[in-house]
Amino acid sequence: MSSSALFDVPVSPPAVPAAFGPSGVTVLSYGLGADSTAILGQFLAEPERYGLRADLSDLVVVHAVTGDEWPDSLDYVERLVLPLLRAARVRLVQIARGGPEDADGVVILDDSRSPRRIYAQGPWRLSDELRAAGTVPQMANGQRTCSIKFKGWCLDAWAAAEFGGRWFRRVIGYHAGELGRAEKDSRIQDGLNAAAGRTICQPHYPLIHAAMDRAAVEAYVLERFGEPIRKSYCAMCPFSGVCASRGAHEERLRAHPRIAADVLRMEYVSQALNERVALYGTTSLRGRLTEDGQNAAVMDAFARSLAAAPHAVYEVRRIYHAARTADCRKWHGSSCRAPQWWCRQPRTEHCVQKHPTHSDGHPWCWGRRGCRGEAQKGQAWRSVRTVFEGDRAGAEAYVWAMAAEHGMRLERGEHSGVERAHYLTEGDTFPTASAYLVAAPAGVHDKQRPKFEERFTLMTGRDGTVGVPVRELPETKPRRRTGGAPPIRRARTIGNVTLIS
User: Could you tell me the CA-to-CA distances from 232 to 33, 65, 120, 208, 216 in Å, in that order?
Assistant: First the structure.
């Protein structure tokens, strides 16, 4: 599909079923950054040029609150953008996740044509989720899972409740250098519209239509609002080298040492539980900040924060399963209920040639020498149990004492420098397992799959943890269902207290 065909502006709204009328509403997904602020400035200046009513009564600006935006981004919008929205009586809706599960719904923090502030957080922040899991933001199958869960899902749930079966125009701030992202977004929406049998919404990308790249966007915002705008992204964003240059990002961290210390502590916990999971993959923010002498104040703030934080000792155990083979997926489909040896160990070329498929179509072989290939790493299961709680010195002393008592190997991580007491080390073949004790700031929730103990014992011959868990595992509860439509709740702020209905 050519870009010109994709982004031709339609003369009229797309056809919708007779039972539904177009809403006549344009929804701007507002991320507080340069791109969406530029679009908002253009809409305010020349609404009719962009297909809006002169009084902007058909424009809704929606901001999904992640809870971890930079204070200077909030300040910029409150000082320079909100007064213009109030003057034009533009509707601003601020929404956030109501909790960790979709059944917790979406909370409308504010819905006003005279907004006075940008909310810094809702009931459930991205950082709340990351700290409970003991990790940093992740990518899965090329997707930014945090953005999908804390922005895209909230916006879609709100729009479904707001518009029902009515069509609306959805405006996103992709600039001219992001044509690929816009094309992908349009394809996804086309698929959703087709699946629904109607037009849910029509994506629109004004900056691409205007051929405005990032430099042009920033120049326009400076002229329109009188101050340069900082890039908008969460403080722990793993794309901070993309969302902002490394130098600009580190400058921002230096300007907000408390936030920097919080992000560094989050990364420290993540690496304590998994050496391979730093903020930038195996490259850590901590490592970057210690490469020169400019960030001494930030590192001092982190050191003080780490020393003062309540600590825990976590017993971390993992099972690394062998991956399913191509033969297994071919013959057993999505679920393997009657595994054969070739389900986890690929057949060698010798086996394929010497042992053709059985009469029922399945591979046939006893799995003799020369037939079994090397198993590949598959799904990993993790168990995290808290076995000590106290201050940092007490937690580290507990690890050393347990290492001495049980003959564990003390070892510092190659990338993190975090010390662990290992009593099982993963092997080079799969399946395999690992287990260790590590001291880190408290707050990670105890968690493991229902069948973890059974499989861990079967694989290792060990029963349970080495340390004594300080609490029982939380009872496994079925995920609460939304019934197809997540609840939409409204918040009221009285003084500095936000109440949620």
Answer: 5, 12, 13, 19, 17
Nearest to 120 by CA among 109, 111, 134: 109
* Residues in CB range of 42: below 8 A, 6 or more apart: 49, 50, 206, 220
65, 72, 466, 463: which is closest to 259 by C-alpha?
72
Write the pLDDT tens digit of every residue in 250-292: 999 999 999 999 999 999 999 999 999 999 988 999 999 998 7
φ, ψ dihedrals at 315, nearest 5°: -95, 115
> What pTM does this model have?
0.90
Residues 55, 34: Cα–Cα separation, whole Å: 24
> How does strand 311-322 pair with strand 377-390?
antiparallel
Please provide the average confidence, as pLDDT, over all residues in the chain.
Answer: 91
89: left (phi over 0), alpha (psi -120 to 50) or beta: left
End-to-end CA distance of the chain: 46
- Residue found under tokens 């868990």: 469
Rounded to 5 degrees, what are φ and ψ at 22? Answer: -60, 145
